[in-house]
Design brief:
single chain; 439 residues; alpha+beta; Beta-lactamase; 2 domains; 3-stranded antiparallel beta sheet; 14 helices; globular
Length: 439
Amino acid sequence: MTRLVVKILILTIMTFHGALAAQISESLTLDDSLQSITNQFLKNLQTDSSPVTAVEVSVLLADETKPRDFVAGQSKKNGKRATTKQMIQYGSISKEYTSLLLLRLIESSDLALDTPLLKIFPEKFSGKIWPDKWKDVTPTQLLNMTSGITTYSMPKIIKKINPYYTSYNLEQLVSYAAEYQIQNGCHPEDLCFEPGTSWGYSNTNYIIAGMIIEKYSKKSYKEALHTYILEPFKRVYGESIYYALQYDNNLYPDMIHGYLPPETAKEISSPLLRANQDVTIVPLSFVGPAGALSGTTHALTLLTRALFDSSIFEGRKALFTEGFVMPANQGEKVSVDEINQKCTIDKKGCFGLGVGVMYDENHGQIWMYTGNYLGYVTTYAYFKDTKTIVVISQNAGQTEKLQYLRNQTIFQIYDQVLAHMVSKTNQKKTGNVNQPTIH
């Protein structure tokens, strides 16, 4: 179910204004421009049949420690004005932190990236619980989406189960894909293929990765995530991020409500999930290690900085050195040294270990990922040359038009940031502190 699950989204149109390092101070003019872009983004979304009522944006410049936060719209239909303090869902952006946990274990145990699942979970195969075809799948193939394992979250499966009010464990989620593949065989339309021979975005891969983490860490996935990711992050940055919320009275009011787009509801074809329905309370345990993080865009901007520009997370180095694959070329392997030649805009970028990367001759390397889960879409973009981070979220799931508008808004935001940096550099050279910001 490619529109329900979160996907990698690659920038498609870009305009270059330069990569500059400058001392940046607070600028009301820049903030006004970014708020105007945020307002226009919501207005553009609402011209569609989409049920979007709010958008949230955060921008972190390289020389600033505090993200600039912007919001437009209402926190729910006929509700109060949304605020930048309200949470949204990150979706599959969670995957890169599952990768970090697994890579950390590989550094400290006898587990290897090429260890087959047969050796990790022999009981699953001796008992015929998992398909034989999964025996030789490795952690690398799980994390790079080259395993050929069917996703449990495609319409053929999800419409048969109840995503509401149910707390799923990881084995349950994997069992849906395993049972389906055992009963129906291996077919390309189900993202099933010989391991390592193609590429298919399957959430089951990351649920199995979570099971490996639990087995080798001797902790639940949630405990491992809190111990090695969320708690170190909070100590350094002072922000809270939550995993697999079962919305209680304390947290539920802090959410911007999420709504299901009509075309996604049609694709799922489930009586439990209707068009324009408020799906905020669907338990995130249904996506687990594949996409169950929630928080503000403010916190996600800082988490992204921690991932790319700090050393607080173990396993981080391997995340950016193990190589990537090109989905457009059926999973062709790409080394880190080949990113600038192969992971280009025209080739739709590359994917690896839960992160996406692309190269543009004007912008350099851009790392980005999008999470899409029922009622939310959240995208971050890390522009490596300027170390600028843009996070943008909307409270309705993915459609093609919404994807295009969101990407264009990211470009507009980054253009404003670059113009601001040019202006600051010119002011410094001329000594004219009153020179206005360029737009």
